Amino acid sequence: MSIISLKNISKVYSSKYLSVTALHEINIELDKGSMIAIMGPSGSGKSTLMNVIGLLDRPSSGEIIIDGENVNLDMPDRKIASLRSDRIGFVFQSFNLLPKLSAMENVLMPLQYANNKPKNPTGVARELLGKVGLSERERHIPNQLSGGEKQRVAIARALINNPSIILADEPTGNLDTKSGGDVMNILKELQAEGKTVIIVTHDQKIADQCEKTIELLDGHVKS
Ligand SMILES: Nc1ncnc2c1ncn2[C@@H]1O[C@H](COP(=O)(O)OP(=O)(O)OP(=O)(O)O)[C@@H](O)[C@H]1O
Ligand SMILES: [Mg+2]
């Protein structure tokens, strides 16, 4: 069963002086519970595609179905934000943690925008920090964590709303081999639990650990 379906998706960035077509009529079907790599040279449209799938940015044309929901181009922002918050967890290359908040507080952040809050948010966050091996680091702020630990906090944060889809844009790009391996193992564990995991990467070794690779070139799907 497809959890993500993109039909003829195009994205054109246009301003007064220029127009860039970052995605050209992309068609993609991704199975629920799969782990997919997105590869391609710089500027080929990988982040644009992730932003469209993650409902952070609207396509210029085409149709998106995420987890059974048809995301119309004219859907109000509020509805899109709510879908995003329920269904999608994000992990970024540069972690994007809030520097003044502890690991625990960072993990709790997305609940501010959540529709369904757990009864015991701290308990859930504590469990997630345990799952990524950081029970002993709850009170540390990002400056007091290693790169690999920061990324594991970011993964715990991505999980707080129990999303069905995890989108990771170069999650190991700033990490050494060992920490990158730890992050990949956690992502694989999430897949084993039934989540759909999509990873943008430049690293063939990471793509080799995924079931499928989508290769982009100049905004087209190459294979
Ligand atoms: N906001 C924007 N306005 C105009 N053009 C944009 C914008 N964002 C991206 N682009 C252009 O769209 C194309 C695709 O960019 P995108 O960021 O998706 O590439 P990428 O594959 O993620 O590259 P990288 O590997 O360097 O991260 C590029 O040509 C880029 O210059
Ligand atoms: Mg990018």
What does this entry look like structurally?
This protein is an alpha/beta fold. It has a single domain, classed as P-loop containing nucleotide triphosphate hydrolases (Rossmann fold, 3-Layer(aba) Sandwich), CATH 3.40.50.300. 31% of the residues lie in helices and 28% in strands. It contains seven helices and ten strands. It has helices at residues 46-53, 77-87, 103-108, 121-131, 147-159, 177-192, 204-207, and strands at residues 2-14, 19-31, 35-39, 61-66, 69-71, 88-92, 165-169, 196-200, 212-217, 220-221. The strands form two sheets. The protein has a six-stranded mixed beta sheet with strand order 6-7-8-3-9-10, sandwiched between helices. Strand 4 and strand 5 form a beta hairpin. Helix 4 packs across helix 5 (147-159) and helix 5 packs parallel to helix 6. The longest helix has 16 residues, at 177-192. It is globular, with a radius of gyration of 17 Å. The chain starts with a strand and ends with a strand. The mean pLDDT is 96. The chain binds adenosine-5'-triphosphate and magnesium ion (MG). Adenosine-5'-triphosphate (ATP) binds next to strand 2 and helix 1.
Short description:
One of its GO terms (cellular component) is membrane protein complex. The protein has 223 residues and is α/β, with parallel strands linked by helices.
Biggest sheet: strands side by side, in what order? 6-7-8-3-9-10
Listed once per kind, the bound small molecules are:
adenosine-5'-triphosphate, magnesium ion
Distance between the termini: 20 Å
The number of distinct structural domains comes to: 1
The sequence of SSEs as H and E is EEEHEEHEHHHEHEHEE
Q: Structural class, judged by helices and strands?
A: alpha/beta
Please work out how many helical segments DSSP would assign. Answer: 7
Radius of gyration based on Cα positions: 17 Å
Largest sheet: 6 strands, mixed
Q: Helicity level, as a percent range?
A: 25-40%
Task: Report the top-level CATH class.
Answer: Alpha Beta
Tell me how many strands there are.
10
CATH architecture type:
3-Layer(aba) Sandwich
Rounded mean pLDDT is 96
GO molecular function: ATP binding; ATP hydrolysis activity; transmembrane transporter activity
Family: Belongs to the ABC transporter superfamily.
Organism: candidate division WWE3 bacterium
Protein name: ABC transporter ATP-binding protein
